[in-house]
Design goal:
Blueprint lengths: L13 E3 L2 E3 L2 H15 L3 E12 L5 E6 L4 E6 L1 H4 L11 E11 L4 E11 L4 H16 L16 E6 L4 H12 L5 E6 L7 H15 L5 E6 L13 H9 L4 E5 L7 H5 L2 E2 L3 H45 L2 H4 L2 H43 L1 H6 L4 E3 L17 E6 L2 E6 L4
Helix pairs in contact: 4-8, 5-6
Amino acid sequence: MRDGFDFKDKNSSTIEAGKLIYTVSQISEEIKFLLEDCYPAVWLCGEISGFKLYNSGHMYFSLKDAKSQIRAVMFQGENAGLVFKPEDGMEVLIFGRISSYPVRGDYQIIVTKMEQFGKGDLALEFEKLKNKLEKEGLFDKSAKKEIPFIINRIGVVTSKDGAALRDILKVIESFDANIEIIVCHALVQGKEAEIDIPKAVNYLNDNYKNLDVLLVGRGGGSIQDLWSFNCENVVRAIFNSKIPTISCVGHETDWTIADFVADLRAPTPSAAAEMILRNRNILKERLIYSQEILLKNINNLVNYYSEKLSAFSKSKVLIKPHLIYEDKISYVEDLNLELIKNTNRIFESKCEKFKNICHKLDIVSPLSVLKRGFSICFDRENKIIKTTKSIENGDMIKIRLSDGNLKAEVKND
């Protein structure tokens, strides 16, 4: 029994016939006090089951293992700082106090801290920064710069003494690629690397703006060895680079936050070199193939026209060219005779028609009348005199005869 419990209290148990009697509420309250006194701060590990997040912000779930389970609640004020989203099936480590909920008679743990099981402080810090940068949009595809198809100038940020640089140079040499390489040495491990890497990235951006791509990385190692590439100032320097960046940190299974913000992620430094030179190799192969096709087509055309030329050289046009124009000359002469004949026939026909028209005109012509002894008189205005009333004594007139003109003066009889 809890120390200081007062049996005289109206809510306390009663003694009747030598029996200590509790109500349900009394014993529930007693158990609640006992649990909270005995387990004020405990750590529990287990699997989340039946997780529910209510509109109030409170989280309710059960924590279970292979044999048992315990109810748990994490209130809104405590879970606001979580760096991950709890869900069913997740292994977690929780801290809190054991209590009970008298209304249902259940005991539970009131959680004040929660961590993903098996993840230490570095993992939690990784998740926290990753979530922060993701919300800022640093991982968005729209923020990614396109890697040029053909690479001619490469910048490398890594240790000059590290295996990463040797692997990159070895791959470039194997491709026999004639490219320019600018190596900017930087420590890639430890506290100093957090300063060196951003400094090198900014230096290349300021002094070698014509670089096509920037490789930033190192060889493999533990999470502690690679941690520099999870530091915020390193990650932001990579994101802010004007030169397209490829993150190539560690081995294929290693992931850092630098991989998420870079324009492209390569599983290893040597893989990064292969990725950027692959297109050159593809283009080289395409050019060789195109050259072969072009030469084949040229040879086919040469052979085709050689055969046509050979066949043409045996034709009558070249062997006996006079046969062509002799026939044409005869044909032209025939056309010429036909043209002359047709022209004469047309001319004779037109002449005959002309004679007929002239004869008809001659019949009705005034000149024919004059030949029969008639004349035509004109006044001084060269108008035909039709009546004697239109002239006076002394007027000069002109008389037209068949063979010429006469002038006369009018005199009255």
